Amino acid sequence: MLEKYIAAxxxxxxxxxxxxxxxxxxxxxxxxxxxxxAVVGEKIVxxxxxxxxxxxxxxxxxxxxxxIDGHVHIESSQLSPEEFAxxxxxxxxxxxxxxxxxxxxxxxxxxxxxxxxxxxxxxLDVKIQLPSCVPATPFETSGAVLxxxxxxxxxxxxxxxxxGEFMNFPGVVNADPDVIKKLExxxxxxxxxxxxxPVIHGYELNAYLxxxxxxxxxxxxxxxxxxKISKGMYVHIRHGSSTQNLGNIKYMTAANMRxxxxxxDDRHAADLKEKGHLDDALRRLVKEGSDPIAAxxxxxxxxxxxxxxKWRGGIAPFWLADLVVVxxxxxxxxxxxxxxxxxxxxxxxxxFDTSARYLPESVLxxxxxxxxxxxxxxLALKGKKARAMTIEPGGVVTGCEIVxxxxxxxxxxxxxxxxxxxxxxxxxxxxxxxxRALFKGYGFKGGAMGITISHDSHNIIVxxxxxxxxxxxxxxxxxxxxxxxxxxxxxxxIHSLTLDIAGLMSSRDAESLQRDSRALIExxxxxxxxxxxxxxxxxxxxxxxxxxxxxVTDAGLFDVEKFAFVDINV
Length: 570
Description:
Elements: H1 2-9, E1 15-26, E2 31-40, E3 43-48, E4 52-57, E5 62-65, E6 67-72, H2 81-88, E7 93-98, H3 101-107, H4 109-119, E8 125-130, H5 148-154, E9 160-166, H6 169-173, H7 177-188, E10 192-195, H8 202-209, E11 215-216, H9 222-230, E12 234-238, E13 260-263, H10 269-274, H11 278-287, H12 292-298, H13 301-306, E14 323-326, E15 334-339, E16 342-346, E17 349-350, E18 385-391, E19 398-404, E20 407-408, E21 411-412, E22 419-425, E23 434-440, E24 447-451, E25 460-464, H14 467-480, E26 483-488, E27 494-498, H15 510-526, E28 550-553, E29 556-559, E30 564-565
Parallel strand pairs: 1-4, 1-5, 6-7, 7-8, 8-9, 9-10, 11-12, 12-13
Antiparallel strand pairs: 1-2, 2-3, 5-14, 14-15, 15-16, 16-17, 18-19, 20-21, 22-23, 22-25, 24-25, 24-26, 26-27, 28-29, 29-30
Helix pairs in contact: 3-4, 5-7
């Protein structure tokens, strides 16, 4: 093949594909240049004046390297890997660093293997990070457990690219033996380790980084970003559905810009369809004043270098022909997308078929639950004060507020308050565990909402102001094999969306799933959920017991800062 590359590069033979009259981004010098981009097989062979067997006129357009998402959970789109690709590839994303943490918590390594095999059917490079924390903490019940021995056995698999986000930062800092085994196994296999380290600094950060961890997507403040970059980390700028920190790019300077990379982490199908993927992040960044060239470098070369993706993220001879042709570097509307030298999308539409989706039995029928009753959701409090969870819009950090409460007939009174019951119901092993909390300020009234997406163990999270409705929500979830449910107490109607793949994703096409998902989200807002919250996705993070401050798991109310359970009673 090298002979073919060289012959075409030297213009002795025609190239397979030439993007004619292109203005393209040279990421190495951060400048825009002009020329024909010649492609043979999966490689770029040169830039200059070339003829091709197939030619695309790019006059007035701009050619960029294909975007690389530095950290994403495909499962959070609620789509199969094939349908996920059908939405993001036409937007210009050609490579993703995928952590199948969610489905692995439900199905074990069968879930991880499913993501890898399904991804082989689409023109998207999916680099699989072996989930490092299954479960995320020992304070919840998950569908699977991957200990140090399991990680050591699985990390060497050819399809495993690295070790996923290491959320158990206390385990690293305190040198827990099982944690050390996981880290050492990744190093022995020569594989990168992703981080997850909110609000860690000073000597604790030093200790965490001595685990050999390279990245973090949880930075909040300028000081935190500067310290982590100064200690060698790459910092993700995140553009998810409910977690966004694009504003962190204001801390990027000419001196530190090579340490920033873009990611989406968790992005819902509706947002992917209506707003976009990394193209939307780039639009937003430029609109808010960022230098477009620097922003694109964060989405391409920086990410490639961070993850050791050789010959990727730039436009140069012998580099992989992953290219996106956009209208301009303001709107980033993709006219053409080339993946490994082949035209795979045009004018926002995929040129590949996703109808033959891989769907093994190992990721189906994952909701195991007894029939729930109204009395299962009684919340008997001891006094007049209780702890209540709060959440700020656009993030996953929760607060704790001491609230005045009243009780009647052995149950808390919610009428006339802005409080809701929030429960996590274990759904993997039929333990009967139900974690109980109060939730303030969400706005929902008149029934219940439930979902089988609850990070990271993905038990059922259900909230409401009526016990019977909460029981009905859980029972419907069991009937449909996982998904999203709203129960309207007044009408008696139950509205649901089935997520048959591990209770996280749908085997349906993206178009119909997005339509029905959006309708259910709108129904939640019509029942009072405040517009500043992403109605269901925000709920999904309320059990994430590795992000401060107060969370609830199936085992109870948990104070992340103390790393211990706390009583709801004050």
